[in-house]
Specification:
The complex is a heterodimer.
Chain A (H helix, E strand, L loop, with lengths): L2 H4 L5 E6 L2 E8 L3 H9 L1 H4 L12 E6 L6 E7 L5 E12 L3 E5 L8 E9 L2 E9 L3 H14 L1 H22 L2
Chain B lengths: L4 H9 L3 H12 L2 E2 H7 L4 H13 L3 E6 L2 E6 L4 H38 L5
Antiparallel strand pairs in B: 1-3, 2-3
Classes of the chains: A alpha+beta, B mainly alpha.
């Protein structure tokens, strides 16, 4: 098996430090197409909020250029929606996007890079939070956006914790 | 898998009933290694081993006061961390599965569009 065949499409997620999260994935397409999917609202809306996430993306506005703004609206209806917004700090077509997350005071700066090799694209999604507390807080915030997923997870964790307790035999 | 090493360390630290018991005990109050060894009817050496496994996983911290090493609960909250990473990975997996489909479609479309001028 040569090196190119070993490239797989596995998603990796890692908290690389107290303040950073990194997600990587390889796509079987040239970088400009993957970049399009991140920067054209009609394309972005087709994948950013998958069904399993439980909350649909109602609207998406993007002015993809340095200093331009974006706004995402999640929810089941407009009267009860959550907004996510910020602005682009850096836009290099086909290779790099940097944006702020301004919905909270302690928002991350997100950097996405697209690196093409042999017709495939390695995508690296990186979030840098201003502090450890801000990252911890962000996860708590997600709890509100994805209640169903967290409910399932909570139950699983309760089972694990319950097991641990009963086995410890106190 | 590299990205889960951190979590694996926690899980393997918790795979042992004595270590889970120690954490539960420390949830009530800090204790010295000698006290823990007594409580769990173990040798000091045996307990030291358990303590160091928990310490490496960040679930327990030790402080030396004079000649006594006192153990307390670590700051890492395992459940929370496990929940985050798991949720985060699942979210991106789902997103990227959808993105894969979209990108394949774009690629196909480009191919067809590219062929268009030479079609006839």
């Amino acid at each position: 098996m040569d090196a190119s065949q070993r490239v797989n499409n596995r998603t990796t997620t890692e908290r690389t430090s107290d303040r950073e999260l990194v997600v990587t994935r390889t796509f079987d397409a040239p970088a400009r197409l993957v970049f399009d999917a991140w920067t054209k609202p009609e394309l972005f809306m087709r994948w950013w909020a998958p069904k399993s996430m439980g909350v649909p993306l109602l609207s998406c506005e993007m002015d993809v250029r340095t200093g331009g703004k974006y706004r995402l609206e999640f929810g089941h209806d407009a009267s009860n929606s959550s907004q996510f917004f910020g602005r682009y700090l850096e836009v290099v077509p086909g290779s790099r996007l940097v944006w702020t997350n301004d919905e909270g005071e302690q928002g991350a700066v997100t950097t996405v890079t697209f690196e093409e090799r042999d017709g495939k694209t390695l995508l690296v999604f990186h979030e840098l939070y201003p502090s450890k507390e801000a990252l911890d807080e962000a996860f708590i915030g997600m709890d509100e956006v994805m209640p169903e997923q967290f409910a399932q997870l909570d139950e699983l964790l309760r089972r694990i914790a319950g097991n641990a307790k009963s086995q410890a035999g106190r | 898998m590299v990205q889960y090493t951190h979590l694996d360390t926690s899980f393997s630290a918790l795979s042992d009933p004595v270590r889970r018991g120690v954490l539960e005990q420390l949830g009530d109050d800090d204790a010295s290694i000698t006290e823990l060894a007594d409580k769990f009817h173990m040798t000091l050496t045996g307990m030291k081993k358990h303590v160091s496994v928990l310490e490496r996983a960040g679930l327990l911290v030790t402080r030396k006061v004079g000649r006594v090493r006192t153990c307390g609960l670590g700051e890492r909250r395992l459940e929370e961390e496990a929940a985050w990473i798991d949720w985060y990975r699942r979210l991106w997996d789902a997103r990227f599965a959808a993105l894969d489909t979209l990108v394949a479609e774009l690629k196909e479309k480009e191919k067809l569009d590219g062929r268009e001028p030479t079609r006839e």
